[in-house]
Every structure is written in structure tokens, then in C-alpha cells.
Design brief:
Length: 238
Amino acid sequence: MSTAPLLEIIGLRGGYGRVEVLRGVDLQVLPGETVALLGSNGAGKSTLNNVVCGIYKAWAGKVAFDGADLSGAHYTDVVKAGLIQVPEGRKIFPNLSVMENLALGSFTRARERRAENIDKVFATFPRLKERTLQLAGTMSGGEQQMLAIGRGMMAEPRLLILDEPSLGLSPLLVEEMFGLIRQLRSTGLAVMLVEQNVGQSLEIADRAYVMENGGIRFSGAPADLLRSDDLRRAYLGL
């Protein structure tokens, strides 16, 4: 695994209107690494994702991806670079079919390899292949989450940010979802897993960050986080 960061965030600040949400965030993801970003609702996790991905503008700080400065870049340029987010709440197109949703995933990047990448998605998610013509809005929550991840894979991500992928799923589907994330991890894909499901996330992460009030309160190995009684109680509810 390379020691040069694939994603490097330095002193990132941002928010909405006049309300500052991110207060100087520093974070790294290495190539092939799975990083868990943990924290309660309102900690700033989704805001961080949206600033990193160019959906919202940073107020200050730097976002670098594979050495290129993406601070202030338009979100389409972020996608073209291979930094792909699977957003919280899935954000699939309910009135479009599974196949149409997947095709939209390659609209900006890897369009010329769309057919090949659809085959790869179906190999990862056989259930989607059985439902190619089904309207996405009629699928179960677990199937919709598979579709959202599959749509992200269509853009040939170099780093895949998964924002709360287990949100709203039954315990059985949560197990299945984390199994699929392990599968993605095994391919060497870099993953940033943004989750409230602490136990499952720490089982598969190489490193972990804990956010609180828009800042990073811990970074390090999952084992070190779990060994600290104070951190477990204060930030993870364990």
C-alpha cells in the first residue's frame, strides 16, 4: 500500500450561510485503504463529504486528490478525477429502471466502458441483474442501496465515499451491506466509510476518524480507539 495519500484534507472549513460546520478538518485516505469516519448526527460528516466532492464550496483549507488540488473544483471535475460519493439516503431515481439508474452513473466518467462496467456491477450484485427493468422506487431499501453503490461503481471510482450505507436497513440487511463493503475492499478499492454503525465499521476499517462538532477528535487504528474507555464512552456510545 502506498504511503502517499490518495485523498488529503488539510484545515478544511465550511458550512451553510453564516453557520460554520467544519472547523479545520485534517484527514487522509491512502490508496487501497478503508477509512471509517464516525460520529453522531450533526457532527459534520455529511457536510465534509459534500465539500470534498465539490457540492458545497470550502471556506478555507485544501482538498487534494492524488496530488491534484481539488479545492474549489466543480463537482463534475471531482467525479472525472475518480472521487465518487454514494450519498446518504441513496438518492436513486425512483421513476427510472435499474438499468437506467446504472447508466447515469457513467454519464461523466467511463462512459465508453459502460457495458463492461454494468457486467461488473451485476457480478457484484446479482440481484440487480434480476431486476434490470424494474423501477428503482419499487425495490426494497437494501436493493436500493445496492443500486446506489452499483451506480457509483459505474464511474470506475478510485475512491468511493459511502455515506451512511446501512441507514434504515434491517439488521440482516446491515450484515449483508457490510459484507458487500468487505467485497469492495478486497478488490483494492479505496473506501471512506461514513457511518453511525460503529461496531461493523471498525471491524473492516484500516484506520478510523471520529468527528465531533465539526472537528476531528480522534484518528488512528480501530484497536486504539476501542482500547480507550474515554473515547468509547464520549464519542461512540460503547
